[in-house]
Amino acid sequence: MQSWVRRFLPSAFTLGNLYLGILAIVLVVSGEHWRSASFVIIVGMFFDGLDGRLARMLDVSSSFGKELDSLADVITFGVAPAVLLIYLRPESALYHVAAVVFAFCGAIRLARFNTQPSLLKGHFTGLPIPAAGGLAATATLYFHQVPWGLLPAVFFGLAALMVSRVPYPDFKGVRLPQSQVVLAITIVGTVIVLWFARSFVFVPLVLYALFGLGWHRALWRRLPVAWKIRYEKQKAARLKRRLEKRARRVK
User: Fold this and answer.
1) pTM for this structure?
2) Domains (range + CATH), the chain
3) What is the DSSP string of 77-120?
4) Rounded mean pLDDT of the chain?
5) What is the DSSP letter of 76?
6) 240: CB partners within 8 A, 6+ apart
């Protein structure tokens, strides 16, 4: 693969994510395809997960890509779900406030991610905005089946989780297929699956959001003792390396 292609490919997925955010807003504003907007946001979440992994796999990670990714994320996962919520009940002040608070907290979450290191290695600090935006978008699919005040409550809750200090696993250790053909088939296949199962994406996103609210403690109590000891040793080793690295910087 040529060098310019290697450098541009991750950014292409980031810009694709940005386009999907714009497309989702257009679909909402059109008034007839607002349900399709939720699917577009979910596909954007998939693209967002690809660009960073591609950058690491191709060894072309950069601060430029990180900033561009954040700008795309605030549109696709912050503004688009907010516009979608307002569209559902434009006369409701509560829906407007929930949408604005959600978008504001998403922007704050991204600013903090770009300027502050994570408190725990291998984890995000606060609910990532792609997960929050995907969950918010799929929640709107149940607009006619839930009480009118539930959706704003979901948006308020997601906003609070984004700016919280709750740790969430980042899954950056999950690697992409090395073969270009397999990677292309995986991308196309995932998009097709998301189209037919977009309503079911709500379930894993809810579980991920609840994971940070204490479910990990319930799971922790059920783990074998040997696993807990190994985890604590690894955690202590990571902390020691961080402290040593910080000490070297001070010197």
Assistant:
1) 0.76
2) 3-215 (1.20.120.1760)
3) IIIHHHHHHHHHSTT-HHHHHHHHHHHHHHHHHHHHHHHS--SS
4) 81
5) I
6) none
